[in-house]
Each structure stands twice: as C-alpha cells, then as structure tokens.
Amino acid sequence: MIRILSFLAMFRRERRPGDLVFAVAFLVLAALAAAALPSQAKFLGNKEFVSEPGFWPLIGVGMMLLFGGFHLITTLNAPRLPGRLKEVLLWGRSLEYVAWFVVYVFAVPYLGYLPGTVAFAVALSARLGFRSWQELGLAAVFAVAVVLVFKTGLGVKLPGGAIYQYLPPSLRSTFMVNF
Amino acid sequence: MHVLLQALDLVLSWQVIAALLLGSIGGVIIGAIPGVGPAVAIAVLLPATFSLDPLVGLTLLLGIYGSSMYGGSLPAILINTPGTAVNALTTYDGYPMTQRGEALRALGLAYGASFFGAILSIVLLILLSPVLAKIAPMFGSREIFLAALLGITLVIVAHKGQIAAAGMLAGLGILLNSVGMEPVNFTMRFTFGLTWLTSGLDLIVVVLGLFAISQAFLLMVEPNASPKMDGVKGKMSSAIREVFRYKRIAATGGGFGVLMGMIPGVGEFTAQFFSYTAARRTSKAPELFGKGSPEGLVASESANNAVPAAALIPLLALGIPGEALTAMMLSVFYVHNVVPGPALFQGQLHFVYALYIALLLLNVIVIIFMLGSSNLLIRLIKVPTRFLGMGILILSFVGVYSLRNSSIDCLIAAGFGVFGLILKRLNLPIVPIILGMVLGGIMEVKLRASMAQINGPLDFVNRPISGLLAAAIVLIVVVSVLNSIRERLQKKHNKETTALAQ
Predict the structure, then answer these.
(1) Which residues of B touch A57 (CB under 8 A)?
(2) Phi then psi for B180, rounded to 5 degrees?
(3) Is residue A103 part of a domain?
(4) Strands B180-181 and B188-189
(5) Is the residue at A168 inside a domain?
(6) A89 is a domain residue
C-alpha cells in the first residue's frame, strides 16, 4: 500500500478548480474516439502497418487515452481547491458569447459586412457595460475602421449583403465590393 | 556576398518596408496590451497575408513576433503585468525597480537588452547560414520524420509538471490533423459521414479558435479591468545605453536564446531560465535577483528576444516549426508554394537572408520607436479588457470567414474558442495541440515516404543524422523520466525532513 501511495505521489501536481471535470471529460472523449476508430479509420491490410490510413488516428487516440489516463491520475492525486461549480459556470457563460458570434456570422450575409459589424460592435459593447454615447460611438468607429482596413483596403474576401440589392444601382456594386 | 546583395534587393521594396513598419510598431503596441499578445494578432492577420507577396506577408508577421516582447516589457515593469507570456520573468526585477523609483532605468535596460539579444542572434544566424545550407541537404525523409518526432517529444517533456496534459493534447492535435479525406488511399477518417468534414479541419481555423476567439471569450466573461499607470520622465537613450555595463550578461542571454530557439518545442521560457540562473550564479549581488536586480532584468530580456530569429532555423531549414507562432507562419509558406526545407537553403538562400535582414531592420525600427513612445504606449494600453474582447471577436471573424467563406468554419472556430478558454482557465498548454496538428502531418508524409526506402527498422537509424536524432529522442525521454522521479523523491524527502524537524 505504501508503495502504491509513493507511486501516486510521483504524479502529484498543482490542481485548479474544474480540473477534474475537464480530465474526466477529456478521457470520455478519448474513449469515444477509440470506440469510433474501427468505423472511422480504415486498415486496408495490403500495406505496411505504419502506412495504413488508420495508423495516425490510432496514434493520436492512443496518446489521448494513455496521457489522458495519466492526467486523470495526477488530477485525482492533487490536493483539491474549492470552486469547481463556479468555474464550470464561468465556462458556460462563454456560451452566451458563442451565441452572439453565431448571430453575427449568420447576419452578415443578409445585413452586409459594414452594417452587420457596426450593429454587432455597438450591441455587444452595450451588453458588456459600455453604454455611454461616447463608448458606443467608439465601438462604431472601431467597426468602421475594421471594415475599411480589411475589406476596402486589403480586399479580404468578406460577404456583401442581401440588403444591398435595395440600394440604387449606382451604389450597389460599390457597396458589394467595398463594404 | 552576391547572395546578400540579392537579399537586400528583395528587402528594399516599398511593400516590405511598409510591412516592416506596420509589423514592428503594431507588434510593440499589441505586445504592450495585456490580454492580446502576438499569437492572437498573428492568427487574426494570417489570412490577410495570404494575398500578399510571401516576403511581405512573412515580414509583417515576423514584425509582430519580433517586436511584441519589447512592448510586453512595458506593463511588466510599470504595473507588474506581463504584456506577453514571455515577459513574466521581467516582472521579477522590473517591477521592484519601478517601486524604487527607477522605472525609466528599468525600461531602458529592458529595451537595450532586448535589442542586444536580438541583434546578436541575427548576426550569429547570418554567419551560420552557409553551414546550415551544407547540413540541410543531409536531411532526407527519415531524418525529417525523426526531427518532427523529436519536436513532439520535446514539446511534451518541456511542459514540466504538465507532461501528461501536454501529451494528451498533442495526441488530440495528431487526431485533428487526420480528420478528412486521406490523400493516398482516399479513405475518410473521422468524418462521421459529414460532407463538410471531408476537406478536414483547417489549421488556421483551429489556431484562430484556440488563440484569438478563446482570448476574446476569456476577456468578456471575466470582470472588466483597465490598467492604470503613471508616465515616465527622463531621457530613454541614456537609460538604454546602460545595458553596455551588463554586456557579458546580455551576450550570455542572447547565446541561450539562440541555442534554445533552434531546438523545436523549447523556446523562450527555457532560454530565460538558463540565462537568469547563469546571471545569478555569476553575479556579485545574487541576493538582489527577484528584488529589482538590473542584471536579472537584462538576463531575462536578452534571452527572450534572441529566440524569434533562432526559431526560424528549424522552420526554414527543415520545414519543422518549433512553436505555435512559427507553425502559423508555415501556412504562409504553403499558401505561396514556397516549401521550407533543405531545398530552400540550397536554392533560395537569398530569401532566407532577406528574412534575417528584415528581422535586423525591424529591431532597429523598434528601438528608435521605443526612444520616445513609452508615454504614448501607456495611453494606448488603457483600453478596458472587455472592450478589447469585443474587438478581438470582430477581427477573428475576418480571419476565419475570409479563409473559405464558410460559416461552418466560424462555428468550428467558436467551438475551439470555448475549448481554448477552458484550457487557459485551467492553465493547460495550447501549443501541443497546434504542434500535434502540424508535426503530425509532417510525420505522416515523411514516414510513408521513408518506408519506400528502407528494408527494416534498423535502416531508419543507420545514417549519421538519423542515428543522432534517434539517440537524442531516447536520451531525452530517459533523462526526463529520471529527472521527474528524482524531483518527486527529493520533494518527498524534503517534506519528511520538515515534518521530522517540526
């Protein structure tokens, strides 16, 4: 028993709140990937093992399982810090901003890059607590600057907007290409 | 000499000079703002550089990489918050000097040491290049495979205390790289029948998610902070010149930076550790280290700024990136069909020299900029962190969407953003995922190519360089395991001794 405890002491490390949740989730992901391996990566049987299409996915999954297992052991073996639930809730809070980003991504092809970006910057700034006219104005200026630098200036391929078809013909193509 | 002139001709175009100015000054500003960092900036700018000439694009990115550490030392010294991760050690001695009323001296020493380290490393590498041009062709498929394997091994063992986490995340990177249609037998790997996964996961999408979008989410979910700092008064040029009083320490730091920068997966932190330890060991006042020692500050800053030029060596000579930033730059090469590796050193040495000259010039631009810009930077970096998060998210959209005009890519990047946020909150390393993806791809191609040339496993290591690389891998693994056991036993012994003494 003492030997086992000494062995476990070798894997002790500093732990942070939420570490265990992540370690378990990662190992579950690795196990799922291992279970999917036979159907998702082929071993054709007519070439050297290391040249098989499934060889590198096997290496990746193998490392995830092996090191993920060790990581779980080190995590279990480390002194626990309080605050796990608070930490996991903070991870969850980021999903709100994922939603904001997704709305922005899908709105731009309809609203156009310039109007979509200005609307997104102003609305998100207000959500983040910057609600004075000066702060909202600054957000709008930043959005316009990004559009001018990347789409107008550098010609980076970014979507126009379905809304631009309602513009007068003389402005339509300019807006489509530059804003 | 002829090659150098050709390289100068390449660098002295208005586009390269514009990229130099933009990259170097932009890099200083980005480095000075805690919470952004060069990785975020490079990830965001990467797709925009694809439309530029390769040298122009690379100069822009190199500018950010090479100058961000200058900027990062400013908040590290003035408010005890490193602007970039590698400026963490600068806070140890820089901030106590500020508390003693020596902020200007600390900033001058940091800038001077950074400049000293960077120039030393660039000059050394220009001198080394003809040698590298002779060695590089000795690297065939099996040597490059083994060098990539060495890189993965080093990335894992270099994460002391987090080896298991680094290993599992490198494994995830290798798996992510294999997703999609495999190009030799055209079989699908981990696509789950989804057509949008057929072309695989783009490295840039993953990089943008893990570095930029995760940082945006992190800044937005955490409470707002706006750094407050006072301006500095006095003449910066005389403060910078003081570094020549510590030229031995700066030269040693630069040397460690070159050495560690060349080894894939090691980088700035190890260089700083060796440089700082060596400086303390040889100092007449070692008790001042960590309490405001000018020698400590010089040791740390000279080592970290010597790394970027050296990190280009494995990338250019072998096509193997040693860390995340050079891994991102690799994609610029591929987009322009410039394949880094032995052929680049043989056939396009002028291009390699041009990159080094660009690095040299950017350091000169930065040091001139730093002479009078500290107070301007202090005003610029007072941007509230949550506002900064909003800005990074908008810029990330430019980076992800412009790659393939794909909304799906944006969703994937957002997913990796959440994953990156969790890793950052848990202080787990992100770099092994990126290097797993890049080096995994290289290993797969090179191992397959090697198999056609060998008859048995021993043929793999029967050439001098491949034998040396294989021996290095075995040695690193054995030494790392033994060190780890010895440290644990030492810790246990110390605990028992303390318990007995009580």
Answers:
(1) 174-175, 178, 189-190
(2) 110, -170
(3) yes
(4) antiparallel
(5) yes
(6) no
The parent domain of residue A151 ranges over: 95-178
The candidate with the shortest Cα–Cα distance to A121, out of A102, A137, A110, A132, is A137
Q: Chain A contacts of B176, Cβ < 8 Å?
A: 60
Q: Which residue of A has its CA nearest to B191?
A: A40
Q: For B148-174, b where at least 16 C-beta lie within 10 A, e where not — what string?
A: bbbbbbbbbbbbeebbbbbbbbbbbbb
Distance of CA A153 to the CA centre of its chain: 28
Q: Which two tokens stand for residue B107?
A: 């900033």
Pairwise CA distance, residues B142 & B36, whole Å: 39
Chain B residue closest in CA terms to A100? B393
Q: Please tell me the total count of domains within chain B.
A: 1
Structure tokens that stand for A65 in this block: 């399982």
Could you read off the pLDDT tens digit of each residue along chain A, which spans 179 residues?
444 444 444 445 567 888 999 999 999 999 999 999 999 998 888 778 888 999 999 999 999 999 999 999 989 888 888 888 889 999 999 999 999 999 999 999 999 999 999 999 999 999 999 999 999 999 999 999 999 988 888 788 888 888 988 888 888 888 888 88
Partner residue facing A60 (CB), from B174, B397, B488 = B174
Q: How far apart are CA B140 and CA B463, in angstroms?
A: 10
CB contact under 8 A, A51 and B451: yes
**Does residue A107 share a domain with residue A153?**
yes
How far apart are alpha carbons B227 and B391 in whole angstroms? 17
Report how many domains make up chain A: 2
Question: Which structural domain range is residue B150 located in?
Answer: 2-453
Interface test with B, best of A49, A101, A142 (most B CBs within 10 A): A101
How many other CB atoms are there within 10 angstroms of residue B224's CB atom? Answer: 15
ipTM, interface predicted TM-score of the complex: 0.91
Q: Is B432 within 8 Å of B173 (Cβ atoms)?
A: yes
Determine, yes or no, domain membership for B498: no
Of the candidates A53, A43, A65, the residue with the CA atom closest to the CA atom of residue B444 = A53
Between CA B173 and CA A34 the distance in angstroms is: 15
How far is residue B455's CA from residue A39's CA, in Å, rounded to a whole number? 31
Distance CA A113, CA A116 (A): 5
Please check whether residue B66 is in contact with residue B46, taking contact to mean a CB–CB distance below 8 angstroms.
no
Give the Cα separation of A143 and A116 in Å (integer): 9
Residues A100, A36 within the same domain: no
Contact A120 B176 (CB under 8 A): no
Contact A158 B402 (CB under 8 A): yes
Which amino acid does the sequence have at A100?
W
pTM confidence score: 0.86
From B168, B191, B415, residue closest to A67, measured CB to CB: B168
Q: What is the number of residues in chain A?
A: 179
Longest dimension (CA), chain B: 72
CB B420 within 8 A of CB B213: yes
